[in-house]
Amino acid sequence: MKRCNIMSLFVFTMVTAPLYAATLPSGDEIANNINARDEGHSVIRTLTMEMTDKRGKQRVRKTRGFRKYFGDEKRTAIYYLSPKNVKDTAFMIYDYADTAIDDDQWLYLPAMRKVRRISASERGDYFLGTDFTYEDIKQESKVSIADYSRKTIGEAIIDGHQTFIVESIPIDKETAKELGYSKVKLWVDAEIWIVRKAEFTGLRNRPLKTIYTKAIKQVQGIWSAHLIEAQNHKTRHTTKFIFSDIDYQTEISDDLFTERALRRGL
Amino acid sequence: MKTHTRAERFFEHVTQWPKTIILLGLLLIIATASFIPTLQKDTRSDAFMPPDHPALLYRDKVEEIFGLKDPMVIAVVNQGEHGIFNPSSLKLIEWLSLELETIDNIDLDRITSIATENNISGTADGMLVEPFFDQAPDNQKAADAIRAAVMDFPLFVGSIAARDGSATLIIAELEDQSLAQNTYQAVLELIERAPTTKSDQLHIAGEGAVNGYMGAYIDADAKRLNPIAGLIITLVLFLAFRTLRGMLLPNLVVIGTVASALGLMAAFGVPFFVITNALAVVLIGIAVADSIHIMSQYYEEVAQHPEASSRQLAIQSMVKMWRPITLTTVTTMAGFLGLSIASIMPPMQYFGIFAMVGVAAAWLYSMTVVPAFLTLLKPKRSSAFSSATQVDKFGQTMSWLGRVVIKHPRAILAVAAVIIISGIAGATKLELNEARITVFQQDEPIVLADRAINTHLDGAHYLDIVIETPKNEDLFKPEHLQRIEALQRYLKTLPHVNGSTSIVDYLKQMNRALNNNDASAYRLADSAELIAQQFLLYSVSGNPSDFEKEVDYDYRLANIRVRLDSGLYSIGKSTIENVEHYLATHFNSGEITASLSGRINIDYHWIKSLGESHFYSIAISLLLVMAMAALSMRSAVAGVITVIPVAVSILLIYAVMGFANIWLAIGTSMFAAIVIGLGVDFSVHTVERLQVLIKQQGKTIDEAIIALYPSTGRALLFNFAALTLGFSVLTTSEVVPLTRFGAMVGVAVSASFIASMTILPALIKILKPKFIGLGNEKATIEKE
Fold this sequence. Notes:
The structure holds two protein chains of two kinds. A 13-stranded antiparallel beta sheet of chain A has the order 6-5-4-3-2-1-13-12-11-10-9-8-7. Chain A is 19% helix and 45% strand. By secondary structure, chain A is of the alpha+beta class. Chain A has a single domain (25-264), classed as outer membrane lipoprotein receptor (LolB), chain A. In chain B, a hairpin with a 3-residue loop joins strand 3 and strand 4 (126-131). Chain B is built from 26 helices and ten strands. In chain B, helix 1 crosses helix 11. The interface between A and B is large, with 39 and 35 residues.
């Protein structure tokens, strides 16, 4: 009787396992789908950064951002609108397609009326005092194919939407250390291929942070997140990126991504 | 007398069912002892402070706001030509910084060393944020370049790297502070494996290391001190009685006493503190005293009434001894009550309470189990008490002392007067001082680590100055920052203050980097906007919690961490007084205020209150003991006379401390309150006996003194030997304050014994106080 049960379970598993797997796309397929999404050739948007520390103290900074692809190279400029004492401060990054070449970064400080070049940041460094790393920002809504090996481990409903759960593991220890993660678990929307939720595990296999992507709406035909929230479980620091006035259609002049433009301001 | 017969009836009951009494006693011992394994150790230095002390509460708040923690610190010292800036030392620093990551409780993001941190420097068109080195160099030239870079980074000079390059620190914060002892062990093992060359020395310091050490010290003490104390006391008992029961019965009382005190401590969740090892030793001495007096009386009875039955002998011994033993029990308890009321240190308060529990337990077992055993055992003579009239050498020595007292009472009182006067003079010269590091033996690694950091770097001792402004972002204002800068400049002029770090130092570094690394630009920017933008600039590559230790999230509160090379109370005191004066006259205004915190501030406040409460605590104990003695003997004069020997012995210690410049400190301040409870026993026994001899037996004062010495005097001699030898065991402790404490209590107890045997009878002979019955001989006779 007992043996029979185990046998039938075995047969059942043999039959259903490949079937079940066949219904889910592989991790790589999902990653390719994510990266194939249209992000727009360029975008202009207002970004409000809300940072909250563990004691509930808040820093709010409002910016206007410009991003444009120059072939595979991505250029970004961010202008601070408020608070008053950092108004007109501007930050610019040239992110080169060749990962071997360091990014170029500049910062314009209006109080000095000078643009200063800043040496490149590490991928795992935090971006402008937020809970996002430079790598998180660089990938934006995409994922890095080369850094991880991934597999699909199931499905779940997030915010009422069907998602695939993809587990990504850095390909080696060195990459893990660079990124600051030992594992990333993604909940990827099965229809529009946006990551709705991501759980990051630290190098000690303890929960590090969770990023939620919310208020996903179509803007000019492109699915766009209007709220990205990061909660750091270790420092209990949180960051909210609130996007508004998203515009993919207005042409951005190449001249906007120059030191002179930074100085001139908006 | 009525009480007499009541006592007789009580001990008839006790001896009626001796086996039941013994069984109940043994069950009680087992029951209380069964809690002992649940005792928890508490080795934190903060444990010695009242948990609601304002300085402690403020420190906790400040630590919470700024995320300050007690890190584990590894010091690398190299006295060679290039200091630590040579290829192999740099490799070692890199190795240690990396390997620390493998220790589970160490926070990966909070390891700070010259191998982990970024250098911020200026270039012609911008700013360079990069590690001091990516990989340890393999040649001296590259090492020299690293040295130049580190020395050009003012934030690290003195705090992370020695000004002369001879040492550097690797600072590692812990994720869970309560696991510090294990982490300390793991760091120790790491250091064992480290690729150290001959010229590199490694030290581990930090509060975690201190706690780890204390735990090991306590365990070592408990394993050694208590067995030695037990052994020594058994030896004293052998000399006193020379019988097996004379050695074993008192030891049974000792076991019962220690079991009740420690068992109840465990049952009430009171932790085992650094000084609790002394409690066991004190209790061993007290417990054995009661039974020494009973056994002495028992053997006197055996010698006088060889024909009496076991039960009769037991009852007669108890009838004679219950009163003095009960009296000493209540007076000793009064002394410990005073200690627990007046002490400000929780470990001392608990010491007082559980010493009271132990003293009560010793009384209970002496009053019940001891007579029960004596009833069961066949009467047997002790060779020390061969006949009713003859006494042994110890008795003879005491008799000689008695004759001296009868002959020279005035000379004895003159000596006492000299001691009292020099004691008062000594007490006025007492210096309150303490240095935590002196808790450890001079050659301990933790002491060497402290010394290394104090000599090569700015120092291992911190004072925190918390700056407060009314509104958010007020700390962007240049005038506030300049005020902080001026305060830091002033701090540097104070002796033993070698450096300080605040947000101002980061801003100056940033300003210099933005201005082409021009040395003249190492100053604060002059507009609030630029300062706000410099903070933003820092965050380009910084962690969200980067300035957590220096400024709060609203830019309203800031912390200045000041480094001193000494943890001595007297230095902390003068520093704090100077800083407080500066703050009041130059710093505080409606717009900005500063308050002190940090280890040095805490030590200053509580050692100050320790000094203030010292004399108060002694006065309370003395008063309570005096009241108890006066009440029991129904005479105020009796109360005063009883505490005189103890008071004289304490004054003697003050005289020694004052003239030998021994500090009044944590260890030395504890002695007096404990001596009162212990030392008063000698005078209670003496006074009670003289009262019995004179009032009841109608002897003259000289006759009474002659009778006192060979019996009560002899018993007190062994009582004193047991106590003093017990305390001398403490002097072999690993913990330095306990060693000093043991020595002082030992000396003071000896002085109390001698004073009770000389000053007390001399005083009674000269004053002829009413309560003793002198001059009332007629009345007594008439009554009879």
